[in-house]
């Protein structure tokens, strides 16, 4: 939802919005990974030995089908990001931006292919030197494999072109090509030129990425800790998605040969091993940055923090905070969504959040030292079962509950001590934020939230320039920040309010944020 008046997007806001655009393909990747994990694990020899009837032809065809459709997200990963970035960043005519994203990505690679042919590195028959690992087939085009970085470059350029030209007016003789139709045209020209310089500039990008990867890996077992803690510390400002994408899909997350092909990025390597029938054990070098590192904090630590907040609440208010804390624990352990719990203590005690970030990073290191090898993205019970238990004891999944139990105790003791020692106002500690924990607010729609009251607390529809959301937060551009009523938002179950600058606002809602956003948009359309 946006108005005709556009506010200038700051550098900081741009990167926050860029990180948000990654969520669409990453959500599909998470689903694809689960499909591949179930399909590959239930067709593996050790599972068939335990459950012989799974060896039936019908079951094996189903498992093969699951693995096949699950591979989609990883086979077409670069083009998905190239489409998702302009789609997510564009304020208007998002469909045109997405279409232009596909056009730009393909043409950029076609132009690169043209240069490679002129240099004699590729022919219509294939790659001249098969040992050249930089060249690969991308959507059937022999081009330089720029991975997620190339997708980001293409997507950002398309977004900028879309914002500049989607309303362009051409002379009457060329009017048919004006407006939205001009966007893919100018995209084809500009990305065609960008593709010409990719073979020249890419070695420099690759060198920088390689150095970052070497820097992280040179820290040994502390590399995952730096990554895990950094990701948590970036989460409140919405920049963690960029760090995740770089480690998961570029050389920073490692490079490994799997089944005769070279793969870069921790998640890409893991999924390649998952789909390779000859791989019997996942590599620790890839999983060290993946789901296993989150499990101590997600399955043990944050539930321990929730119990500490419950115990520290006033006895007469515990029944009010119980539902909020339980729903947060379920969202964390099953869905991998931690913000409903983290934002309960982030704003009242940054110290607790820093401790949480350090312990999360330490969990990554402990999992690596113990030799646990569980991949995927979320660190949930689903990941533990699908990518740990179902793949046998070689993953050392049985150590996860032990470490999670230790983390539960550590979090509980630290949180309980700090909350009481410094009188931290976590939910149920005073009458004001008891309202925040209440789940009895009036409701108007499927979201279960009083969206009319939330809209009023935001200063009304006329005070909102743009409205969007990520996994747990409303992301808004506000005309007059002084009209925002924090207490009213919290009384209507907002978990937290983040002011980015004089116009940028984020309201942390939780897992139902998409429904809240849709209902707010509907209310604004009626004004």
**Helix percentage range:** 55-70%
Which residues sit in consecutive blocks of at least 5 with pLDDT less than 50? 1-5, 432-442
| Major beta-sheet overview | 4 strands, antiparallel
| Molecular shape | globular
Tell me how many strands there are.
10
Q: In percent, how much strand structure appears in the residues? A: 5-15%
Strand order of the largest sheet: 7-8-10-9
Number of helices: 23
CA-based gyration radius: 25 Å
How far apart the termini lie comes to: 12 Å
Mean pLDDT: 85
The helix-and-strand class reads alpha+beta
How is this structure best summarized?
By secondary structure, the protein is α+β, with helices and mostly antiparallel strands.
Descriptive keywords:
4-stranded antiparallel sheet; two-stranded antiparallel sheet; 527 residues; alpha+beta
Describe the protein's architecture and organization:
There is one protein chain. Mean pLDDT is 85; it is low at 1-5 and 432-442. It is built from 23 helices and ten strands. By secondary structure, it is an alpha+beta fold.
Topology:
Layout: H1 11-21, H2 23-42, H3 45-50, H4 57-70, H5 72-75, H6 77-89, H7 94-118, E1 122-123, E2 126-127, E3 135-138, E4 141-144, H8 147-165, H9 182-218, H10 222-234, H11 240-249, E5 255-258, E6 261-264, H12 266-275, H13 284-287, H14 291-312, H15 318-335, H16 339-346, H17 350-369, H18 381-388, H19 399-421, H20 431-437, H21 451-457, E7 464-469, E8 473-478, H22 486-491, E9 496-499, E10 504-508, H23 513-526
